UniProtKB/TrEMBL annotation:
Pfam families: Lactamase_B. This is Zn-dependent hydrolase, glyoxylase. Residues 36-248 form the Metallo-beta-lactamase domain. Keywords: Hydrolase. Signal peptide: none annotated. Gene3D superfamilies: Ribonuclease Z/Hydroxyacylglutathione hydrolase-like (3.60.15.10). Coiled coil: none annotated. The keyword Magnesium does not apply. SMART domains: Lactamase_B. GO terms for molecular function: hydrolase activity. PANTHER family: METALLO-BETA-LACTAMASE DOMAIN-CONTAINING (PTHR42951), METALLO-BETA-LACTAMASE DOMAIN-CONTAINING PROTEIN (PTHR42951:SF17). InterPro entries: Metallo-B-lactamas (IPR001279), NDM-1-like (IPR050855), RibonucZ/Hydroxyglut_hydro (IPR036866). It comes from Mesorhizobium australicum (strain HAMBI 3006 / LMG 24608 / WSM2073).
Length: 289
């Protein structure tokens, strides 16, 4: 069972098509859907070289789309100041090393994601028995890493600040991955949540295709620590965000979104945790270095 509050109850974040291929939802914030996943662009359009930031990098096939939007949005040859990773799953890091080398830019992630980004270890196997559809059943075929970012990889500042994103702070929101982070801006109560929770069903091919706007917990097949995932959702709900961008699904806003998020936080086990788990039984742990 999942929280399924439909479009009449959850509002799309107010979106503007500026002709660059991304949805703009704030003067300095936009996102691009790339097949099954979103990437986020922070920075004022036309801001130029080193004046913007990319959050997550999509699939291995996403490079040309990201470069095209970046050029149209920020200017020809405008490189970001940084790439920020919410976590290291394959659909969020598919082009990260290629883009980091192309732009000569650092990649920032939480320390607990480092083993999955420095070539040390792979993520634990996914759980194809969580139910929901073909995406879950196919999940053992998805790449688990590790990838090796080499000297491009840097750790996020311990003070919660985010390089290149003044006014924002990162929040540790584990569960879906040990070092998963979300990004929060208090000024306008904007929240970028990666896969801490998502706004569409991700377990079925049909739901991935149509992307009805609904409130869901993190993708079930790749979430090994459900206790931590619940704590993370409760922490994010307590912020009372005005607008959220998740890693999967459309950006959402308004009272309906907050009510759905509160419902997910209050009844997380009922709405998010799969009733049957046959493959992953223990939370993922970071190996000793």
């Amino acid at each position: 069972m999942t929280v399924q509050i439909q479009l009449s109850d959850i509002d799309h974040a107010r979106r503007e098509d500026r002709g660059d291929g991304a949805w703009s939802i704030a003067p300095d914030l936009g996102y691009l859907r790339l097949a099954i996943v979103n990437v986020v662009f922070f920075g004022a359009p036309g801001s130029g070289d080193r004046k913007w930031v990319l959050i997550d990098t999509g699939l291995p096939t996403s490079r040309s789309s990201i470069l095209a939007v970046a050029e149209k949005r920020f200017g020809i040859d405008a490189r970001p100041a940084a790439i920020i990773l919410t976590h290291g799953h394959f659909d969020h890091v598919g082009t990260v090393l290629d883009l980091a080398n192309t732009w000569d830019v650092p990649v920032f992630a939480h320390p607990l994601e480092r083993p999955y980004l420095d070539g040390t270890t792979s993520y634990p196997p996914p759980d194809p028995w969580v139910g929901g559809g073909l995406m879950a059943l196919l999940s053992p075929l998805f790449p688990r890493g590790p990838i090796d970012l080499g000297n491009r990889l840097e750790l996020l500042p311990a003070d919660g600040s985010i390089p290149g994103m003044p006014g924002w702070q990162w929040l540790h929101t584990p569960g879906h991955a040990p070092g998963h982070i979300s990004l929060w801006r208090e000024e306008d109560r904007s929240l970028i949540v990666g896969d801490a929770f998502i706004t569409t069903g991700q377990e079925s091919v049909y739901e991935v295709a149509v992307q009805d706007l609904e409130m869901h917990g993190p993708p079930r097949y790749f979430t090994p620590d459900w206790d931590a995932a619940e704590r993370s959702v409760k922490r994010l709900a307590a912020l009372k965000p005005q607008m959220v961008i998740s890693g999967h699904g459309a950006a959402a806003a308004g009272m309906g979104m907050r009510q759905a998020l509160d419902s997910l936080a209050d009844r997380f086990t009922e709405f998010a945790v799969p009733p049957k788990m046959k493959f992953v039984r223990e939370p993922a742990t970071v190996p000793n270095s």
